[in-house]
């Protein structure tokens, strides 16, 4: 099956097959990845975690679930500079190290299998989790509870004191939003590790998974520039220009477009 089509088809299932979708994303980058075999591994993980969870109401089991995953070795990848394997689910299952988003998706899969209420939160810079209706968030990297003061501190560590915590930062994340965020992460990781072709695969997936931003067109335009595809670069720069409300950015985009080869060609 075509990995991209299989990934998108996972979003149409009820319930959404989110973790399987991430495995098909991994399969886009490595033909040796077998999503079915990876999913089979999760049956054993599910049984092991189920046997270790305390006898509590399911509404109180989200934090113990995250702690059990952490005890089994699933932790944040601290390697610097970060490599793409931190955002490829097959590698995360093998190494038990990954970005917070990947650990969160694994936790959501286990929670779904165990009927534990849990949802993703699209917190900037560090993906988080929440039990619906709870007054706190949960860090997928170990299960620490985060109250508003903790969230402000986390935000300041990521972006500095100038960024203010808003309600938008605490919105629940849909499966499509999580896959788009994962695709952006992979685009950046592949690009920073000098693999522009792999980054382009991720950049194109970003465009398919929902509303796009100026930065998405700019990121793909830069990849096309590196790959010497000026007409594709022009297409993305023109779309970025249409979306941008920043006068300085619009000026720079206009200058960059003017430097590209003309699309007009003479016929002889």
Question: Can you describe this structure?
Answer:
The chain is mostly helical. Helix content is 56%, strand content 5%. The chain has helices at residues 3-10, 18-29, 35-52, 62-71, 89-95, 100-113, 148-159, 175-192, 196-208, 214-226, 230-243, 247-258, and strands spanning 75-76, 97-98, 119-121, 128-130, 137-138, 145-146. The strands form three sheets. A two-stranded parallel ribbon has the order 1-2. Helix 11 packs antiparallel against helix 12 (247-258). It is globular. The chain starts with a helix and ends in a 10-residue tail after the last helix. The model has no long low-confidence stretch (mean pLDDT 95).
Descriptive labels:
5% strand; Serine Threonine Protein Phosphatase 5, Tetratricopeptide repeat; two-stranded parallel sheet; 12 helices; 268 residues; mainly alpha
Give the strand order of the largest sheet, numbering strands 1, 2, ... along the chain: 1-2
Instruction: Please give the share of residues in helix.
Output: 55-70%
Task: Work out the helix count.
Answer: 12
* Structural classification: mainly alpha
């Amino acid at each position: 099956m075509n990995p991209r089509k299989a990934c998108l088809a996972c979003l149409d299932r009820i319930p959404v097959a989110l973790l399987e979708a991430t495995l098909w994303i991994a399969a886009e980058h490595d033909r040796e990845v077998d999503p079915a075999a990876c999913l089979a591994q999760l049956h054993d993980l599910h049984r092991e975690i189920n046997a270790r969870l305390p006898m509590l109401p399911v509404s109180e089991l989200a934090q113990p679930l995250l702690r059990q995953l952490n005890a089994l070795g699933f932790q944040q990848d601290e390697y610097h500079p970060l490599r793409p394997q931190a955002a490829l689910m097959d590698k995360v299952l093998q190494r038990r190290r990954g970005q917070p988003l990947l650990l969160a998706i694994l936790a959501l899969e286990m929670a779904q299998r165990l009927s534990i209420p849990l949802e993703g939160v699209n917190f900037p810079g560090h993906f988080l989790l929440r039990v619906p209706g709870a007054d706190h968030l949960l860090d997928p990297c170990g299960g620490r509870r985060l109250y508003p003061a903790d969230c402000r501190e986390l935000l300041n560590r990521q972006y500095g004191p100038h960024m203010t915590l808003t309600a938008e930062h605490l919105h629940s994340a849909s499966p499509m939003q999580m896959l788009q965020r994962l695709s952006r992460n992979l685009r950046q990781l592949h690009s920073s590790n000098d693999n522009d072709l792999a980054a382009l695969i991720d950049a194109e997936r970003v465009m398919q998974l929902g509303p796009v931003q100026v930065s998405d067109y700019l990121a793909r335009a830069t990849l096309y520039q590196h790959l010497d595809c000026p007409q594709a670069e022009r297409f993305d720069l023109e779309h970025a220009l249409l979306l941008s409300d920043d006068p300085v950015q619009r000026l720079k985009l206009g200058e960059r477009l003017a430097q590209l080869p003309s699309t007009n060609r003479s016929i002889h």
